[in-house]
Predict the 3D structure of the following.
Amino acid sequence: MLHTRPNKFGGNQVAILHRDGSTTVYSHTAAIVRPGDLVKEGQPIGCTDTSGNQQGRGNHVHYIYYPSGAATPADPAAHLENAKPYSKTVDQSACRSGGR
């Protein structure tokens, strides 16, 4: 876990630094993990929220992928050829309690 913080455009954000040096950022996400936590593949990290500039779209997540050493994001599709499908639902009690 790299950080959890608000951002004026994406609202609440959760950023994860991966072993390969890449970073993923999830915007409009209320964290259920804390900075410094080690997260495992497939582990829920947060719940969508209405933070940031929603422009009437309701709850949704922006996923941003930075390859190792990159200062600008890249298209994640080129890096997801072996991606595993995971549940897109989280026990809502984790969202209400902040995951702790």
Notes: The helical segments are 92-97. The CA atoms of residues 20 and 68 lie 7 Å apart.
